[in-house]
Design goal:
about 240 residues; binds zinc ion; 6-stranded mixed sheet; Metallo-beta-lactamase, Chain A; alpha/beta
């Protein structure tokens, strides 16, 4: 694998993701919403930053962009659909576009639902998905701007990625998502095992993510919903949980 991703915990429960491409040493940061801890993490990793990737326009994903950009003088990549509410973009991308990163390429997947202009980045080399606030471990993003049908379709695209894909999401919501998942799917054995591992990681002060897409397919109630109607029902239940 040539691309690796490590979470940088920021704010209350957000993760920025530090990406490293091992052939050229290229380094990128995803959703740098808090400049200071991110600059420190980059300095610790060698002090090189080649690119900033943005999944969506919410402040808890972009607030540190200008400061990090000014420090490392690197290009910013984000959704063309949200150019008007993102920091200044050097590469504005849409569905099917690719982003060159060192020796590898990321594919852009539009995933509307949480926001209208949400995008995810998938690195086939390394099997890394930057899922922003679209797909969480054991959960999915709230439908702030999109419809259940849009989110269901966005998740359908992610479900089609290889089963060993690492899901690198924007928040540490897994334990709270687990309480809901267990409430709606109490007899799911794989879910109980999954939650046991999450509890161990969190008790040890470790991030619960990235998770593996193939596992999420067996335990995430939003990925288990077979059609739009069931997805809509699960999402509505979670909103009131
Ligand atoms: Zn968000």
């Amino acid at each position: 694998m040539t691309v690796t991703a490590s979470p940088v915990p920021i704010l209350n429960d957000n993760y920025a993701w530090l990406l490293r491409e091992s052939v050229t040493g290229a380094t990128a940061i995803v959703d740098p919403a808090d400049a200071q801890p991110i600059i420190e993490a980059i300095e610790k990793a060698g002090g090189r930053l080649d690119m900033i990737l943005l999944t969506h326009h919410h402040a808890d994903h972009i607030a540190g962009v200008d400061e990090v950009r000014a420090r490392f003088n690197c290009p910013v990549v984000g959704a063309v659909a949200d150019m008007h509410r993102l920091p200044k973009l050097d590469q504005a991308v849409k569905e099917g576009d690719t982003v060159r990163f060192g020796d590898v390429t990321a594919e852009v997947i539009e995933t509307p639902g949480h926001t209208r202009g949400q995008i995810n980045f998938f690195f086939p080399d390394g099997g890394i998905l930057l899922s922003g606030d679209t797909l969480f471990s054991l959960g999915c993003g709230r439908l702030i701007e999109g419809t259940p049908a849009e989110m269901f379709d966005s998740l359908r695209k992610l479900k089609a990625l290889p089963a060993d894909t690492l899901v690198c999401c924007g928040h540490e919501y897994t334990e709270s998502n687990a309480r809901f998942a267990l409430a709606v799917d109490p007899d799911n054995k794989a879910l109980h095992e999954f939650v046991g591992k999450v509890e161990q990681l969190r008790a040890a002060g470790q991030p619960s993510v990235p998770s593996v897409l193939g596992d999420e397919l067996k335990v995430n109630p939003f990925l288990l919903a077979p059609d739009v109607a069931s997805f809509t029902a699960v999402r509505a239940k979670k909103d009131k949980f």
